[in-house]
Write the structure tokens for this entry.
Amino acid sequence: MDEVLQQVAELITEVVGPDFLLGVEITRDTTFSDDLGLESIEFVALADKLNAHYGVDLVAFLADMDIDEIMAMSVGRLVDHITARV
Amino acid sequence: MSRFLFVVPPLTGHINPTASVGGELLARGHDVAWVGHPGTLAPLLPDDAVVFPAIDDVLEADIKAKRERWLALRGMAVLKFFWEEFLIPLGHAMEPGVAAAVRDFAPDVLVADQQALAGPAVANQAGVPWVTSAATSAELVNPLQTMPKVDAWVRDLLHEYAGGDIRFSDRLVLVYSSKALVSGEFGDEVAFVGPALTHRVERVEFPWERLTGHRRVLISLGTLNGPAGERFFGQALDAVADLDVQVVMVAPERPVPANVLLRPSVPQLALMPHLDAVITHGGHNTVCEALAHGLPLVVAPIRDDQPTVAAQVVAAGAGVRLTYSRARSTDVRTALESVLGEPEYAAAAELVRESFIAAGGAATAADLLEKVVAG
């Protein structure tokens, strides 16, 4: 498993709480909206963790996307963004 | 005397403030009418209120059915559905009825709820001055500002529909909140009048004799929620079962502990003076009604403007925020014990209450509407 993917999955689990991910394996295809149902406050918490860990600005990353891209935003796309930056 | 026409969607939270401001205008001797869905308006308005139809029962049932699908969506899909499947089609559907009402009633001013886009569209065509009734303060602070492409998408939809951003009148935008909750710089046309609570009509029965607890809490997720509501209700019931509080819970029939009074609906405004705290999804009306009574809040926002409203409550120090889809009974219990037990929450809520009183509510709104007529 990709190291960044594993780390991002851990950060998501910290934000959401492990109980809610029982039986859900976070893969590159996992979407933030549909699959994880990330709430706005959880998104903010994840942004803080990504910033602390990688110095990546999640808000700025999303700012370039249109509504369909944000809806389809997957863990894989975030991982690629981080990998390209770090 | 002047003539005021309120244009509203079939949503209780959006009709309520207009019922109050309209009631105040009626009390001052003006002619007032509403245009929307008569069946949704009837229980919220005085018996002799003048109502023009713009939404029939078939369309209203269709909107309700759509809402069921909408409640199953998450994240940005909610916003896309809201605009493409609800707001813009509702605008088109309401136009003939609103146009007929403008023709028959001949208002001096049209007061359009922010989610009744047919109001400004028809008013512009007919050359009638229109103002905005912002049932929530969230649009003012623009939650989409960090997503410029999404923000532009919304503006494009509005331009396509009506040739401009008709969410905001340039004459007057009535906001039923205060600067104690909403921070930012706003134009002179934006008026923070506080919640409009006078002249409101509540026809729901309530067993007042059963309110016996010395500390009382309302749990309400408003008139719209969905499957995740079932989970949250369950956690909330577990949270309060062993607490020394009496709980009024607005929810469909289910088994509840002895200290919970379950009702399908309540006269919420009348109930407020009897409460010590409110657990809510963060609907703008419920939050501001609670704060208008100095009540601290536990807010678990579901969607739409609710995260923004929840953030306002937390920033004001008047409550605790929970994660709606994941909060456990222990989280709900800890949050409730905090707002009930730590006096700074109630003190912060009291400061908001004072700001609401200073804002003036429906009377201030009516003053401003009279000024629009005067020009």
Residues 3-194+360-374 of chain B form a domain with the Rossmann fold fold (CATH 3.40.50.2000). Chain B has a mean pLDDT of 94.
